[in-house]
Design a protein that fits this description.
Strand order of the largest sheet: 1-2-7-6
Radius of gyration: 26 Å
CATH architecture of the largest domain: Sandwich
Oligomer: single chain
């Protein structure tokens, strides 16, 4: 399946949106990947999100969760030789190395991660700085002019 998207017509009609088009191209390229490991993205509240990833067979020491600016990277590297002695008749649980990348919106931070029963859960929170939050502007009324009687 071809995923090359042509954003040239949009570049001619917009100014300053090149980062958005780069992001769309990157995400389109990632979605054409192999789909391993499977994951869910949940909205857990007004400004809270959760990524749940099925990582059966991986221990905490074999997983790495890293946030760098607006990108979250989750990697899994199986310990070398951990199943060297096992003879499989059928192997359906994938234990191959992986790397998943997620583009995060502005001001979204990772607040925690936990591994329970083969499910890695990463908690995310949008934390707007005070200067970005809506604020109410107080309106001051000018005192009405005093009317004086003309003589």
């Amino acid at each position: 399946m071809r995923t090359d998207l042509d954003f040239a017509p949009y570049h001619r009609a917009t100014v300053g949106f090149d980062r958005v088009f780069d992001l769309l191209g990157t995400v389109a390229g990632q979605s054409a990947g192999n789909g391993f490991p499977p994951y869910d993205i949940e909205k857990a509240g007004e400004d809270r999100y959760r990524i749940a990833m099925a990582v059966a067979g991986f221990s905490e020491a074999e997983l790495n969760v890293t946030q760098k600016e607006d990108e979250l990277v989750i990697t899994g590297k199986a310990a070398p030789g951990r199943n060297g002695q096992t003879q499989y008749l059928h192997r359906g649980i994938a234990e191959r190395d992986f790397e998943r990348r997620f583009q995060l919106a502005d001001h979204v931070k990772v607040v925690g991660a936990r591994l329970i029963n083969g499910l890695l859960t990463v908690e995310l929170q949008r934390e707007l700085p005070e200067e970005k939050k809506p604020r109410t502007i107080r309106i001051e009324a000018e005192p009405a002019p005093r009317l004086t009687r003309q003589q």
